[in-house]
Amino acid sequence: MSEFAYADFINGQYEPLLSTDQIQKRITELAQEISDDYENNCPVLIGVLNGAFIFMGDLVKQLTINCEVDFIKISSYGKAKKSSGKIDVLKDIDCHLEGRDVLVIEDIVDSGLSVKFLEQKIKSCEPNSLKFVSLLQKKDSAQVDFEIDYLGFWIPNEFVVGYGLDFAQKLRNLPAIYILK
Ligand code: 5GP
Ligand code: MG
């Protein structure tokens, strides 16, 4: 089955943005960079549910260092395409972060409000270090100035789906990334 088949049910209102090949090549580069930078550490990777689950899975498989994984689930979008700006913690981090080297794994940075929220929350746990990884970041969209330490791709300021990213909880299983028109 082609990568396009599942998107057919939204009446062709999509446009390919990043292919599985492009995504995997970039993840290999990011994993190499992170493995080099954390060679002598054992970082805790905190995946931000639900969107980051596929990216995080592919990324950790290519890390050549010891690491631990945990997850946080936050909500800000609900079923809307635009962020409501209000962030709730739906599932909190379980492990102790004090003194640890923490890497937050995000799918996409749009307004930057989520990463800002996570930065404040995790900093209050007094980690030894805190850095952010995101597969995608939207150009000209940020409400808060935030520099991602390990970024996969800058993308246009459009709503994207696939590779973990949803539209009303669906289309996360598309293996590539599409712009939803
Ligand atoms: P921010 O707080 O930076 O505005 O948005 C962060 C979260 O909103 C992301 O982690 C992601 O879950 C969701 N989000 C932002 N832009 C998009 C998008 O284009 N498509 C999808 N599916 N989710 C998005
Ligand atoms: Mg996210």
What does this structure look like?
The model has no long low-confidence stretch (mean pLDDT 90). The two termini are 23 Å apart. Helix 2 (53-61) links the parallel strand 2 (44-49) and strand 3 (68-75). This protein has one domain (21-157): Rossmann fold, CATH 3.40.50.2020. Helix 1 crosses helix 2. The strands form two sheets. Strands 4-3-2-5-6-7 form a six-stranded mixed beta sheet, sandwiched between helices. It contains three helices and nine strands. With 181 residues, it is of the alpha/beta class. Guanosine-5'-monophosphate binds at residues 48, 51, 76-77, 83, 106-114, 159-161, 165-166.
Number of helices: 3
What small molecules does the structure contain? guanosine-5'-monophosphate, magnesium ion
Predict the CATH topology: Rossmann fold
* Fraction of residues in helix: 10-25%
Question: Any idea what the shape is?
Answer: globular
- Count of individual domains: 1
Main sheet characteristics = 6 strands, mixed
Taking all Cα atoms into account, the compactness measure Rg is 16 Å
Question: Termini, distance in Å?
Answer: 23 Å
